[in-house]
Amino acid sequence: MSTQMTDRYIDLAERYSAHNYHPLPVVIEKAAGVWVHDPEGHKYMDMLAAYSAVNQGHCHPKILAALKKQAERVTLTSRAFHNDQFGPLCELLHDMTGYDKALLMNSGAEAVETAIKMARKWGYQKKGVAADRAEILVCAGNFHGRTTTIV
Fold it and tell me: Where are the domains positioned within the chain?
């Protein structure tokens, strides 16, 4: 089977995008559940799930319906404003976990950077670590994003 469309899409990405990733030579055109398909009709099981962002599978009907319903009301608000979904979500997370507060993030990099900041602050405030003397140990080989702290 020809790979003409796959080759074209890869060529365009190589030519016009910054090279911060080195993806496999597979182009995903459509997906449903755990299956993804390339332009030539090859079917692959998605074992990566967008770095766990789609553990529920691609195009789940209930999730699509919820996305559509919300997008028809408000597409997105920044944290510069309150909205009618954020508070109830934080309350639900409190009820589910028993924790006092929720701090929601957009990415693994943000979450890990925030955890490092919180650990440093805890060391200074609770353990009495001298100012600017905190040392944070992290594990090599983990991937949480591409920031200066996390790389």
Answer: 1-73
Q: What pLDDT, on the 0 to 100 scale, is given for residue 119?
A: 93
3-state secondary structure of 16: helix
CA distance 23 to 10: 10
Where does 1-73 sit in CATH, by number? Answer: 3.90.1150.10
SS3 of 53-113:
CCCCCECCHHHHHHHHHHHHHCCCCCCCCCCCCHHHHHHHHHHHHCCCCCCCCCCHHHHHH
Please give the Cα distance from 57 to 36 (Å, whole number): 10
Tell me which residues of the chain have a pLDDT lower than 50. Answer: none
**What confidence score (pLDDT) does residue 94 get?**
97
Residues 64, 73, 108, 10, CA torsion sign: positive
